[in-house]
Write a structure and sequence with these properties.
It is a single chain. This protein is an alpha+beta fold. The protein folds into two domains: 43 residues, no CATH class; 61 residues, CPE0013-like (CPE0013-like fold), CATH 3.10.530.10. It is built from two helices and ten strands, in the order E-E-E-H-E-E-E-E-H-E-E-E. It is elongated, with a radius of gyration of 19 Å.
C-alpha cells in the first residue's frame, strides 16, 4: 500500500492531503483535507492530472517567439507530444491574443491559442 501526499490548491488553505492507495491503484482513504472541494480536487488530481499547457512558437522572418497556450486543461501525460507539435509550428503576423493556431490539438478538445501578440 502506498501513501502519496498531494497539496490541495482548491482554496487558500493549501491542505496536505494523504491518500492510502491499495494494490490495485484505488484510493482507500483520504485524510487531511478541510473541505469537500479539497477532497474532489485531490481525487481528480490523483486519477487524471490536467493542466493548461503553455509554451512559445517560432515566428517567421525572425520576429521572435510568440506565447501560446491551450484554451482548456489537458492531461499532463500529453505535454511531451504537444511540445513536439509546437516545435514544428511557425507563425506569421498579424497574430492577436485568443487567435486559434491549432483546433482540437491532439484530439484533446482543446485549441492551441495565441496568448500574446507580435
Amino acid at each position: 500500500m502506498t501513501e502519496p501526499q498531494i497539496i490541495c490548491i482548491g482554496c487558500p488553505l493549501g491542505c496536505s492531503v494523504t491518500l492510502k492507495i491499495d494494490e490495485k491503484g484505488n484510493i482507500e482513504t483520504l485524510t487531511g483535507n478541510q473541505c469537500q472541494e479539497g477532497r474532489m480536487y485531490v481525487v481528480a488530481e490523483f486519477q487524471s492530472p490536467v493542466r493548461i499547457f503553455t509554451s512559445t512558437v517560432l515566428t517567421e522572418k525572425g520576429m521572435g517567439l510568440l506565447p501560446v497556450r491551450t484554451d482548456k486543461p489537458i492531461h499532463k501525460g500529453q505535454f511531451k507530444e504537444l511540445m513536439r507539435v509546437t516545435a514544428k509550428l511557425r507563425v506569421s503576423s498579424p497574430c492577436e491574443p485568443g487567435q486559434i493556431l491549432v483546433h482540437n490539438v491532439l484530439g484533446t478538445g482543446a485549441n492551441l491559442i495565441v496568448s500574446g501578440s507580435i
